Amino acid sequence: xxxxxxxxxxxxxxxxxxxxxxxxxxxxxxxxxxxxxxxxxxxxxxxxxxxxxxxxxxxxxxxxxxxxxxxxxxxxxxxxxxxxxxxxxxxxxxxxxxxxxxxxxxxxxxxxxxxxxxxxxxxxxxxxxxxxxxxxxxxxxxxxxxxxxxxxxxxxxxxxxxxxxxxxxxxxxxxxxxxxxxxxxxxxxxxxxxxxxxxxxxxxxxxxxxxxxxxxxxxxxxxxxxxxxxxxxxxxxxxxxxxxxxxxxxxxxxxxxxxxxxxxxxxxxxxxxxxxxxxxxxxxxxxxxxxxxxxxxxxxxxxxxxxxxxxxxxxxxxxxxxxxxxxxxxxxxxxxxxxxxxxxxxxxxxxxxxxxxxxxxxxxxxxxxxxxxxxxxxxxxxxxxxxxxxxxxxxxxxxxxxxxxxxxxxxxxxxxxxxxxxxxxxxxxxxxxxxxxxxxxxxxxxxxxxxxxxxxxxxxxxxxxxxxxxxxxxxxxxxxxxxxxxxxxxxxxxxxxxxxxxxxxxxxxxxxxxxxxxxxxxxxxxxxxxxx
Length: 532
Known about the structure:
Helix 7 (179-192) crosses helix 8 (210-222), helix 9 crosses helix 10 and helix 14 (452-465) packs across helix 16. By secondary structure, this protein is of the alpha/beta class. Mean pLDDT is 76; it is low at 72-76, 81-89, 416-450 and 455-532. It is globular. Helix content is 31%, strand content 23%. The chain has two domains: 5-392, ANL, N-terminal domain (Rossmann fold), CATH 3.40.50; 407-531, no CATH class.
């Protein structure tokens, strides 16, 4: 039952003709999804993929991604998840490292993937093309013509997935996961929120991230429920999809929940009453922000989840009843199936008021980092996984993340190496807020015409709220991706999404090096109130 192909088999037996996947105006029942996965397994076999080979998947949130991606798991293939939105060559480097022989790529991404220096045979997916208009060699056309594979899967200890993560250094590392580990991740996740047998779960965060794929897509399929796919995150589209599909559960980074309130003028006109659970991860919410979101969404059912890609991901959770009283904390102890402790430098467990590294233990950990024995040895202490997060324990046993052992900045739910973010932009002499070339929602980006008042407010806010801060003193973004007011709101929201504690930080200035600047929390609160 812990082989991932069993998820499909069980769904067919328990919920055969129930809706399993929704993508735009297309729908698949559990039975149709299983049948299509087996036909896709035949296509991949005919393309030359053999048990133990590695398949690259570079798509958006479409049926060719994590959901229909179960096809490669049916026949015991390893899957390497690429990053279709990476503009800086990370996808190509990941392909080279994972050793994929066959790849499924969204046609829109095609050139970025096929131009990478990797010996991969690509099958192009055209998820938005009508069946009658598909090219004969399109992945969907090949699947439609194939006979279902009728073989049996291998043992649940086989490798199922190589999931890339930025980790603590910013250098992508491949987390190697087994069928059993991912299946147990789904089980523990479903028990944590908890999920019900009538869920309609919106997947709007990138499905090539650990949590949308292994936590939420897999757990929803485990229960025989419905996965609603949104191709890419967009605030208005998220609201429209929730309303149209009567979504019951939504997961996103904090910015994904904040942005609709900030940027959609007619937010209040949307009917979001179907949603039972608003789940967020990759960063905390302070009490004031949580209170404002609860009011905006008309719900107190907010859940925070904390986990590490190397663990499935599993970790800890903060329930709706704890959102305000314990705002900022990740929870007390581990989620179901997980043990969590905070370890001091001397190896003893941290007590109330003490700080140490967060360690996790479960049945879900990765086998190790792909082709990196040293990094694997460093991250494990026996059967404990060392998270690299520093946590402080309060008097009630709740743990709050206060820093990273290595410096990274989380933007829009993704880890970015601080050194790269602090690198001056070409021709500006000032620190970049994001890696060169990025201008996507959820990353702190603003146009050149951001006013001096807003620029100053951003600097004050950033100087108090990031463990390692790149304070924006001059905007050096070449492209104008947002209007002034929208940019101010989104940059502030993105900063909030990475908030750990309002710690004094180093402010980076152009031309005069690093000078320590201490700002009061009152100044940052004034900026936050101005944004709202």
